[in-house]
Amino acid sequence: MEYLAKRAWMNRPCRQRLATMLLAAGLGMITGVAMAKDPLPEPRSKPPMVVAQATRTPAPAPGQATNPPAAAATTVQPAATPPAAAGPQQTGPSGLPIPRFVSIKSAPVNIRRGPTREHEIIWTYQKVGIPVEIIQEFENWRRIRDADGEEGWVLQTLLSGRRTALITPLEKQKSKVTAVRQAAGGTSPIVAYLEPNVLANVSACKTGWCRISGDGFAGWVETKYLWGARPDESFD
Q1: Residue 213 backbone class (left: φ over 0; alpha: ψ -120 to 50; beta: rest)
Q2: What digits encode the pLDDT tens for the residues 166-194?
Q3: Which residues pair with residue 110 across a beta bridge?
Q4: What are 57's strand-pairing partners?
Q5: Domains in the chain with CATH codes
């Protein structure tokens, strides 16, 4: 009986179960070694005044786009407009100045290669309030330029007259941060520091200074440190 019991235990199914148990035990030990890692470093702290940066997402990759092919029927000549900080403003068909700053009204907003819905989407804005500059008008479409210098077309109804601005990127200024002052003037007390690409609301501009506000800050910044306002602008 003892011999039969040993034969029964060592039959093929039993041997397979034994091999599975030994393999599992070995994998457990290997996994335990692989899991033994150094503890993660503490997250880097940031100044409390920094808010989310403006973001864009590229157009769908080839083969994934759901848009019709670009239309060739509508032809619009490129606008010969100066950069935001140079030259006098002209007037567009709407009677409003060109160039002029506005902001993205809702999200997501598709920017197209031409002034029709049939034109290809070249990028999509995923955040409300991003400043853009209108450089050309065609019917109910507006050709815009963003802080990166890229241009595209968007429906006028997707833009807002609310003024916003981005703190000038680091490579365009000497300091790593931009000072926000209590009043317009270089001798006014500093109330906050902002990092590059912080998005702010603009409520007034005069004599080279703009009043801005955002999540946890409010004050005045020199216009040269903002993308979204012209140095010669004055409004309240």
Answers
A1: beta
A2: 998 777 667 789 999 999 999 999 999 99
A3: 124
A4: 124
A5: 50-61+89-162 (2.30.30.40), 166-227 (2.30.30.40)
Q: How far apart are CA 23 and CA 15, in angstroms?
A: 12
- Per this entry, what is the length of the chain? 236
What φ, ψ does residue 18 adopt, rounded to 5°? -65, -40
Q: How far is CA 93 from CA 90, 98, 130, 139, 157, in A?
A: 10, 10, 24, 8, 16
Amino acid at 85: A
Containing 57, the helix (H) or strand (E) segment is strand 56-58
Give 24-76 pLDDT, tens digit per residue. 444 343 333 333 333 333 333 223 334 434 344 455 555 444 333 334 334 44
Q: Model pTM?
A: 0.66
How far is 25 from 91, CA to CA, in rounded Å?
78
Q: Where are the alpha helices (DSSP H) in 10-50?
A: 12-34
Q: At which residue do the structure tokens 């100045």 appear? A: 97
Residue whose C-alpha is closest to residue 154's, from 139, 166, 168, 175: 139
